[in-house]
Predict the 3D structure of the following.
Amino acid sequence: MSFKPTLVVDQVSKRYHGRSGVQANDRVSLTVPPGQVVGLLGHNGAGKTTLVGQIVGLLRPDSGRISLAGHDAVAHPGLARQLTSVQVQTNCALEGITPRTAIRTIGRIRGGGRAEVRARTDQLIDALDLEPWADRPSEQVSGGVARLTAFGMAAVVPGVLTILDEPTNDVDPVRRRLLWGQIRGLAERGTAVLLITHNVREAEQVVDRLVVLERGQVVAAGDLAELTDQGRIPLEDAYIALCGRPHDQAPPPASDPDSTTDLDRTTDMDHTTDPDRSGADPYHSSAASEEVRS
Amino acid sequence: MTTVIRQFGLYLGWQFRRASQIVPLLIVVQVVLAVATVIGYGFLIGDAPAPVSLYLATGASTVSLVSVGLIMTPQTVARQRSEGSFDWVRTLPLPRGVLLAADLALWTALALPGMILGLVTGSVRFQVDLAPAPWLPLVALAVAATAACVGYALACLLHPMAAVMISQVLLFSVLLFSPVSYPAQRLPDWLRQIHHWLPVEAMADLMRSGLLRHDFPVQPRDVAVLALWCLAGAAAAVWALRRRV
């Protein structure tokens, strides 16, 4: 059964001008269908957040096309923001506001009705086990609770597309699982979810499909079975083969299934020392770009 | 329209809650700045003759309104940009005009206590009988909104650190090198010509006319200059908010 994708990113390029002149996105193509969680995997500086900025109209692509529910998101950024809810990577500065009030207010700003938003807020607070902190000012809660609150703000009235940028940063292992359940729940309600992460474990747990971004380019795309050679290769190894890894750091122990595998700590951020990837892995051949399929 | 008004109210409430912890401190700083301007100028001038007293008594209110918009607004927006919350707010489905209007309403409200106490202090210190015009609140709102729009646009367009530094230079310029608490005739000709086109002199003149309407008649040129800066400032702020690099 095929669905018309909610989000279509087609050959999008974006270069930051200035002294360093970084090519943040280079002909990036991907699709996110309704009811699916698509993971965008890549380490810091890979161009993930730049892509989000272009989808919601904070940045303008140099070239390419972004379509959201059939609308041109580049030409109509205001409409794109109505259709998309975003959990940004940075904090939302919630000082003075309790988690419950924050989630309710953003739900109302996103156009939800009062009763509907109240019910959904209470449901999210319960599902994420936030009740003990729900009515405390946010400056008195931990970073993990603030992060879950930010997820609640994105999920309360999710729109047709929800973008989650590193949603589990600072979240403890127990609540991380609860959060993953809620992300899957969003997809089951028909929302297209773009999950941006550099946490391989998270990608394995939550996503239907995965797009790997490296130095602004899509270097691999597919479902987990495709990317792991039908499960014969651990996803983390496949990822490292695609994106490089440090010369002298061993990957973190994989004994804890909930441990955050922060690839920023385990991969080489100095791209000048990237290993030659051509022919070294079975995924590179499919890496050129994900075809835009409708 | 109903949706826009509802969004304005919700976002204003959000911003007010966020600022609630520092609002008392901000108001105290504003009041101290306004009162200190009156008292400090009094020390500088000594026993001021009547015409000078009128300028000193009314100048502090303009300084208070302008300083919130040109100094505190850019500093706050610069901080929000540095911490990332500014970009998050811009992902919300709020028209850019609503974002700006809610912030302006907040900053204008914060400027009012300092303005009022500065006026009271000035009239007592320099024994000036104020004669407020009925349109004074409108001018005060226009002055506060214009200053905040210009400050907002600066903060959106400049690097956050540059915005903070420029805001400090602006405070210095408004306090000492603008014809707010003294007549423009005291300035060198070249600086007077510059102020002829900048908004601060028009702001100060109109506030003075509104407070002492029998002594300082309204100059139509001041109205035109303030209106132009108000519109240009709002347009620049909305453009800066909409801008996609």
In short: The two ends of chain B are 30 Å apart (CA to CA). The mean pLDDT of chain B is 88. The interface with chain A takes residues 3, 6-7, 10-11, 13-14, 17-21, 80, 83-85, 87-88, 90-95, 244-245 of chain B (CB under 8 Å). Chain B has one domain: 2-242.
